[in-house]
Amino acid sequence: MQGQTDTGAETVHSSSSTTRSSNPQPHIVIVGGGIIGCTTAYYILDALRSRTLEASYASLSFPPSSVDSNTNPQPKVTLLEASIHGPAQGASGKAGGLLAKWAYPHELVDVSFSQHQALAERHNGKDRWGFRFVKCGSWEGEVPGDDGDEEEEGEGYSGNKASGRRLPKDLLWLRESLTHSWSPLSSSDLKADTPSELAQAQVHPYEFTTAMLELAKDMGLEYVQGRVTDIVVQPSGKGTQEVTGVQYLSPSTGSAAQSLDATHVLITAGAWSPSILSSMKGSRVRLPIKGSRAHSVTFRPPSPSIPVAPYIVFTQAARKRKSSKRQRITTTSSSPDDSPFGDPEIYARPTNEIYACGATDNSVPFPITVDDVQVDSKACARIVRDVGRIMDVKALATNQLGEGGHNVVSLEELVHREQACYLPVVTSGVEGPIVGEAKSIANGLYLGVGHTCWGICNAPGTAKALTELILDGEIRCADLSALDPSRFLQ
Q1: pTM above 0.85, yes or no
Q2: What is the pLDDT of residues 60-96, one digit of tens each?
Q3: What domains can you pick out in the chain, each with its CATH number?
Q4: Where is composition skewed (Acidic residues) in this entry (predicted)?
């Protein structure tokens, strides 16, 4: 949608004639209110707060001579989010929240993990978004009911019962009788004397994302609800294009398009980023990202006084070979009862909650917005079934002293939420994410997209890198040349 729509919708304000040099105020517009967008807004405003007005304008390509501290406003940062329900409605609110030193790409992880620690220390992340160090391991065992076997419930099921305890002594919510092996995903965890030496930590993604947004608002961020329909560009006079604004639709104005002038536009819309780029008038650039739907289920013990040991578990049926732990994309069966064990990932959270997710699928058309994501009840039922096969439900209803008395018969009784989201997967054959300025499209257009299942982990590193690039013209925190948009755009 460019200016006037085909239906004759009125354009409230057009930015098509605005140039960066004539705009009296630098304006950074971030498209997408997920974890990358909200965290980047925080980092940009935090960096600007420590600079003089002259330095801020100069870093955003405004000549110092044009700055008058008496008349020039501070650089402006606006975040646009399409969902009518607010920020973090996609993967940023429905992911597991694992932070791992062994995640990928390593050059981004090295920055992100330490930044997560720093943010938690600075803003009480322990209480605000559940930051804590955790142990993470790979569980392999006998799965009752898999491959057509009859499932046997309760403690009477022995399977290939191991001699002696294989699980960590405090990991009581998995069934020891089914366990063949347990191994930490990082060998360094075996040498860790304190939690802070562990190779993994976790956050609650929704709480982290919304906290970043609120902290950014406290520093002056403007939050706008609207679905972007066009990124406005114009010739820069140097044989290239430059961004001058964005157009969007807001629920408050119906079909009337609204516009924002912009000197810098950052796209952080996850799986919806390709549709935003393709909406640009005359654009033939294809962003190689595909959304892959992932379902998850959360469970809560019947009493908040019953602790859930802090472990993240990657599961595997003993008779099956597990694919890469980085990402498993398969098509699930139509019935939750006739499909094999789906190797769910299980996350204990500090809120006394357990999160579990299964394989991803692409069985339905990709939705127009995050608010249109469909939740497949059968996919969630498979997750509940698989987790219930290996979890000691009784342990979730009884504390470690054997007290509780809660008459929980099945895991289904502890289900709290069933949900789905889309992971943004890079499809070009080059490992993402995509982080940097998309100069081949327009100067001033930046991308922070394609983080697959590691968006929560890599959000602070991405935010720090983009902040340095936007404000200082180069990324200094790490060598992210392998993630530059020029390697991905077609």
Answers
A1: yes
A2: 766 555 555 556 678 899 999 999 999 999 999 999 9
A3: 27-97+207-288+428-487 (3.50.50.60), 135-197+291-424 (3.30.9)
A4: 143-155
